[in-house]
Specification:
single chain, 170 residues, alpha+beta, four-stranded antiparallel sheet, three-stranded antiparallel sheet, 10 strands, 24% helix, globular
Length: 170
């Protein structure tokens, strides 16, 4: 009986050591990812400098949502072609409801709907109105627009990260 107990104890200790080593390895990987958060790409639309680069040929009258990360904060930019043909951009967060965790938009027909308060917002007002319960605009001064792309610089994204502190947490 004593031999059996010793064998089981050795097996349990061995299993514990393996689990501890695995946990240590996973923790080390996670902290390295967090440390590199300021330059990590959120998706295929973020360049090595951390700028968000949106191809103009992808933008239509259906809102497109582009994930981006700034200093480890997950954010999202929406781009849409308004009825007048102009391309509009905004952060996908509500200027009033952003702190709620549900202050982001989904498209319903030709409107954007805040998932917190239910405010319905017309596509032709994106990037036109500031303040109130509507998408947080990204104005011309905060981006570079060419025939091929819209570039929103990393430094502007970093300046705006506080509006995403509770984003999609509820």
């Amino acid at each position: 009986m004593n031999q059996r107990l010793k064998k089981k104890t050795k097996t349990l200790i061995g299993s514990f050591i393996i689990m501890l080593l695995a946990f240590t390895a996973l923790t080390a990987c996670a902290s390295k990812e967090k440390e590199s958060g300021s330059t990590a790409k959120a998706g295929k639309y973020q360049n090595d400098a951390g700028d968000l680069v949106i191809p103009v040929n992808e933008i239509s009258n259906t809102a497109s949502f582009y994930p981006v990360t700034a200093d480890g904060t997950k954010m999202e930019v929406l781009a849409v072609k308004a009825p007048d043909g102009t391309i509009r951009t905004a952060f996908n967060t509500c200027q009033v409801c952003y702190g709620s965790g549900k202050g982001y938009y989904k498209q319903d027909g030709d409107l954007l709907v805040c998932q917190n308060c239910g405010n319905r917002f017309s596509m032709d007002l994106v990037e036109v109105e500031a303040g109130g319960c509507n998408p947080w605009p990204i104005f011309d001064k905060d981006k570079t627009v060419t025939e091929e792309s819209i570039t929103i610089p990393s430094n502007f994204l970093k300046e705006s990260e506080q509006i995403f502190a509770n984003w999609k947490t509820s």
